[in-house]
């Protein structure tokens, strides 16, 4: 990546939110009527969910447009009133934690014997509390290397999950419990981190006609419900992916324009607007567009417990800002596609940054970055954070394993070039 001369910059439309796409695709597959889900530039993670839903019995026709980037998923749902299919279904999750953690309970609720086949670092990421909950519900769940096999049918009960490991556990159970007979409860023990992701789940369930009653940290779920999501649905833009482009814009005098975003979105990573303004960046919004450009930048302190996916991008911007930026509440980043506290620090240090890793966060001392060679560590968000850091580098930046961005943002490098001229 290298900036050269005077270039024309364009407003970039970000991909559809993979968080929302996962949820609505699953709800559509569990519903009683066909639907169409439109996704702009779907990621590898979204494609993994589509593949697994087909393996569970949904009939999905995929139509890809070569002109506008939209992919249409025409979904004829899984027949919930039929007998469970015979034999073990193989579900290839790729590296998608959402696909695995959402569909393990769903397969169990459907009574489908299923073998989930994982790739990359996914088999190493936490899963124990979710498997324990399924076993409590009468399901046989066996983890063996990169596979997890479940058999039997989940029954109603009183379940509990920790709130500080992964909100995806909670989402998986909330998607599954309405399908089984009898009333169930799900208690979240301790503080629920990344709570906005569970709100996205509850929004998707409400759109699908599912009733769930929340009483503080307890969710009461009536059983025997029918999903009724139908029609033609377009998934809104992804604030998580947009954050990297907006942080790059905040480090640039020329700035960056991003479109396709819902300013009233329930996505928690919409907070990037407030965070960039706290840094001193100039951020303007109009309809579905957000523009970010450099202002009088300064260091900040940030609790990232509800926005962990933003940390690499924020850290990369902080490395270019005078002063000491402190990020806390991010211990769960050690359990992602890489140990993101360590890999964010290593990536920035390779480019001349000064970063200290703490138990639950990072301390970044901003200044001049040199540039050079760094690595993605196979983690899409580290690769994109390196692009943010490159905005302040004196020399060009080369990112090893840069193609890992396909996990969440397949056209990131193309969009970065169009938006910034890099």
Write a short abstract of this structure.
The protein is built from 12 helices and 22 strands. With 422 residues, it is an alpha/beta fold. α1 packs parallel to α6 (195-207).
CATH architecture of the largest domain: Alpha-beta prism
Radius of gyration: 21 Å
What is the CATH level 1 assignment of the largest domain?
A: Alpha Beta
- Count up the helices: 12
CATH topology of the largest domain: UDP-n-acetylglucosamine1-carboxyvinyl-transferase, Chain
Fourth-tier CATH superfamily name of the largest domain:
Enolpyruvate transferase domain
Q: What summary fits the major beta sheet? A: 4 strands, mixed
Overall mean confidence score, pLDDT = 95
Please state the structural category. alpha/beta
Morphology call: globular
Q: Give the CA-CA distance, first to last residue.
A: 6 Å
Q: How many domains make up the 3D coordinates?
A: 2
Question: How are strands sequenced across the largest beta sheet?
Answer: 1-14-16-15
* Low-pLDDT stretches: 3-7
Number of DSSP strand runs? 22
| Percent strand | 15-25%
Tell me the helix content.
25-40%
Describe this structure in words.
The chain is of the alpha/beta class. The chain has two domains: 18-223, Alpha-beta prism (UDP-n-acetylglucosamine1-carboxyvinyl-transferase, Chain); 239-420, Enolpyruvate transferase domain (UDP-n-acetylglucosamine1-carboxyvinyl-transferase, Chain, Alpha-beta prism). The chain is 31% helix and 24% strand. It has twelve helices and 22 strands. It has helices at residues 18-30, 44-55, 97-110, 128-136, 167-176, 195-207, 239-250, 272-279, 311-318, 340-350, 380-390, 412-420, and strands at 12-13, 35-40, 59-64, 70-76, 89-94, 114-118, 140-144, 147-151, 158-162, 184-189, 213-215, 218-221, 231-234, 256-259, 282-286, 289-293, 301-303, 324-328, 354-357, 362-365, 372-375, 397-400. The strands form six sheets. The chain has a four-stranded mixed beta sheet with strand order 1-14-16-15. Strands 3-4-2-13 form a four-stranded mixed beta sheet, with helices on one face. Strands 5-6-8-7 form a four-stranded mixed beta sheet. Helix 7 packs parallel to helix 11 (380-390). The radius of gyration is 21 Å and the shape is globular. The termini are close together.
């Amino acid at each position: 990546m290298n900036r050269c001369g005077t270039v024309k910059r364009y407003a970039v439309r970000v991909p559809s939110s993979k968080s929302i796409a996962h949820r609505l695709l699953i709800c559509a597959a569990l519903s009683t009527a066909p639907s169409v889900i439109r996704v702009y530039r779907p990621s590898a993670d979204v494609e993994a969910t589509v593949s697994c839903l087909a393996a569970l019995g949904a009939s999905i026709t995929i139509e890809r447009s070569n002109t506008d980037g939209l992919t249409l998923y025409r979904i004829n749902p899984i027949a919930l009133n039929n007998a469970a299919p015979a034999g073990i279904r193989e579900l290839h999750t790729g590296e998608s934690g959402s696909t695995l953690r959402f569909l393990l309970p769903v397969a169990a609720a459907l009574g489908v014997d299923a073998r989930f086949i994982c790739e990359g670092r996914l088999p190493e990421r936490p899963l124990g509390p979710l498997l324990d909950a399924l076993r409590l519900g009468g399901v046989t769940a066996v983890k063996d290397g990169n596979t997890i096999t479940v058999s039997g049918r989940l029954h109603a009960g009183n379940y509990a999950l920790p709130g500080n490991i992964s909100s995806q556990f909670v989402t998986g159970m909330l998607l599954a419990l309405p399908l089984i007979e009898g009333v169930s409860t799900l208690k979240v023990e301790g503080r629920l981190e990344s709570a906005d992701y569970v709100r996205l789940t509850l929004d998707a369930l409400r759109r699908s006609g599912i009733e769930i009653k929340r009483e503080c940290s307890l969710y009461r779920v009536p059983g025997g419900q029918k999903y009724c999501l139908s029609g033609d649905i377009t998934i809104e833009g992804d604030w998580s992916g947009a954050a990297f482009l907006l942080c790059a814009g905040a480090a640039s005098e020329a700035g960056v324009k991003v479109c396709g975003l819902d300013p009233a979105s329930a996505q928690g990573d919409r907070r990037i607007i407030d965070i960039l303004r706290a840094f001193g960046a100039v951020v303007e919004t109009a309809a579905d567009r957000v523009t970010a450009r450099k202002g009088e930048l300064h260091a900040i302190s940030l609790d990232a417990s509800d926005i962990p996916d933003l940390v690499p991008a924020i850290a990369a911007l902080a490395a270019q800002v005078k002063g000491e930026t402190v990020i806390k509440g991010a211990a769960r980043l050690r359990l992602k596609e890489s140990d993101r506290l360590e890999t964010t620090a290593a990536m920035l240090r390779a480019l001349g940054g000064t970063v200290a890793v703490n138990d639950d966060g990072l301390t970044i001392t901003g200044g001049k970055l040199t540039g050079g060679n760094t690595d993605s560590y196979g983690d899409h968000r580290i690769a994109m954070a390196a692009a943010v850091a490159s905005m302040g580098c004196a020399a060009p930046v080369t990112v090893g394993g840069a193609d890992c961005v396909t996990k969440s943002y397949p056209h990131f490098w193309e969009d970065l070039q169009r938006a910034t001229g890099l």
